[in-house]
Design a protein that fits this description.
Helix content: 40-55%
Number of strands: 11
Bound molecules: protoporphyrin IX containing FE
Number of helices: 16
Order of helices and strands: HEEHHHHEHHHHHHHHHEEEEHHEEEE
CATH architecture: Orthogonal Bundle
Shape: globular
Structural class: alpha+beta
Distance between the termini: 15 Å
CATH class: Mainly Alpha
Largest sheet: 4 strands, mixed
């Protein structure tokens, strides 16, 4: 039975801006919550343009224009300085931020690492992590912050599949280093979004070099040890990437390229997946009927076992719930590009140096593209669902689409189905999470839920 506090309401969303803001106000708001600068019209129109200071910007919420930016005219629209400014100190010129030929060879060398076969062989690590969360929740006192739990679970997975068994990987130390980095260094400022040149000092630069150095040292040490010890019986991401070769140039990654890319996998793959799972659990608590349906599916497939890669394809509703979660709360809620040449998007002229933003959060809630867009409805992604591929972009698209999307989907399905098959999740009155965008779309105040074994 749904409890009395749950009328037909909508899950938490950000109040989008309905009036014109000055530069200073925009700046202040951006520091607090990047989503708060998305104008409300962005969920009603396909394109919104403006000028802040001297920078011209466009927010694009149209699938055809998205296809052009992400796929057809990749050369005109490289990633903007924002992504690079934030991430370069941590992950060097790794695949995530490199452009042109330097990106292409790394992507080709890494692509086979993420094949479905390799991910299936790494899936037991995901199952073990799901089992470990269940053990922790079983001893929790009837309630838990599932965001904390999911951050821990996904970190165990990503650290085990990157530097596993190296003996040097102290997950607490690395976790702390990343957390400090994101908290102190990576606060997106308006300067970053609008692509003000990198030499303009950022407040954020004043913090955090120690945690970064520590993170890199740990990675370097693990790589050196692995070179000595040789590959593991079941190769992990480090083994696979060491072995990887660009078939065209035959180039392989050297030690620092390996380190930067592996740290990229940790930074890009850990919190994003944790957020997906936390919001999914919250939404299940929000809509008990969905939770029941998901539980029925999970229990009939898993029969008391922990989920494995083999189960994943047998739980279509679980995949639907995760896709709908990624629509309402896309962890990477804002993609940003800087135009390099003149172009036209949705009939509007784009000039070189214009900032072109894809506010994925607003795209996913755009009234022209989605019916009742703020409502949670996993059936949107049911059999025969029809939506333009470029109107659902949690993983981006085109050649720079997330290389870890299959990895993330398998991990999310293994952990979510296992948890729902064993526990009931309920909201706690007055403690609903608030979505806030600080690099990723995070729940302010965590996601505290009531947790009871079933
Ligand atoms: C739910 C989880 C995840 C989400 C929502 C997500 C989202 C994204 C998005 C939106 C992009 C494209 C960014 C852009 O075009 O500006 C991206 C790229 C990338 N992601 Fe993910 N990601 C997730 C999990 C992962 C995992 C698990 C890994 C690795 C283990 C990973 C590694 C990467 C890398 C290396 C790129 C850069 C690819 C390139 O530029 O060639 N991600 N991700």
């Amino acid at each position: 039975m749904p409890d009395a506090q749950m009328p037909a309401e909508l899950p938490p969303r950000v109040e989008l801006v309905t009036r014109v803001m000055g530069l200073w106000e925009t700046f202040q708001l951006t520091r607090k919550n990047l989503l708060a600068i998305i104008p409300h019209v962005a969920v009603k129109q396909p394109i919104v343009s403006g000028k802040t200071g001297i920078i011209r910007w466009h927010m694009i919420m149209d699938p055809t224009a998205n296809r052009r930016i992400l796929k057809e005219k990749l050369d005109i629209y490289p990633k903007s300085d924002v992504t690079k400014n934030i991430l370069r100190p941590a992950i060097g010129d790794s695949m995530f931020i490199a452009e042109g030929a330097h990106w292409r060879w790394q992507r080709r060398a890494a692509a086979p690492v993420f094949s479905h076969r390799n991910i299936a062989s790494l899936a037991p690590i995901m199952s073990a992590s799901a089992e470990a969360v269940c053990e922790r929740l079983a001893t929790a006192d009837g309630q838990a912050d599932v965001f904390d739990e999911m951050v821990r679970a996904t970190f165990e997975v990503i650290s085990d599949v990157t530097f596993s068994g190296s003996g040097t990987m102290n997950s607490d130390a690395v976790h702390k280093a990343i957390d400090n980095y994101i908290d102190q260094t990576a606060r997106v400022s308006l300067f970053d979004i609008l692509g003000v040149p990198t030499w303009v000092p950022r407040f954020s630069r004043l913090f955090g070099p120690n945690s970064l150095t520590k993170m890199k040292d740990i990675a370097d040490e693990s790589i050196a040890r692995r070179r000595e010890s040789g590959a593991k019986e079941i190769p992990d991401l480090l083994d696979l990437l060491m072995d990887g070769q660009d078939p065209k140039s035959e180039r392989q990654m050297n030690a620092s390229e390996l380190r930067d890319n592996l740290l990229t996998f940790i930074v890009a793959g850990h919190e994003t997946t944790a957020l997906t799972l936390s919001w999914a659990l919250y939404l299940c608590a929000f809509d008990p009927a969905v939770q029941e349906k998901l539980r029925a599916e999970a229990q009939s497939v898993l029969k008391g076992e922990v989920a494995t890669a083999d189960h994943v394809g047998q739980m279509p509703y679980c995949e639907q719930v995760i896709k709908e979660t990624l629509r309402l709360y896309p962890p990477a809620a804002f993609l940003s590009r800087t135009a390099q040449a003149e172009d036209v998007l949705f009939g509007r002229k784009i000039k070189p140096k214009d900032t072109v933003m894809l506010p994925v959060y607003a795209l996913h809630r755009n009234e022209l593209l989605w019916e009742n867009p703020d409502a949670f409805d996993p059936d949107r992604f049911g059999e025969g669902a029809s939506y333009d591929r470029f109107s659902w972009l949690p993983f981006g698209d085109g050649p720079r689409v997330c290389i870890g999307s299959h990895f993330a989907m398998v991990e999310a399905q293994i952990i979510l189905s296992t948890l729902i098959s064993r526990f009931k999740f309920e909201r706690i009155k007055g403690k609903d999470p608030k979505p806030v965008l600080v690099v990723t779309l995070r729940p302010d105040g965590g996601v505290p839920l009531k947790v009871t074994p079933v």
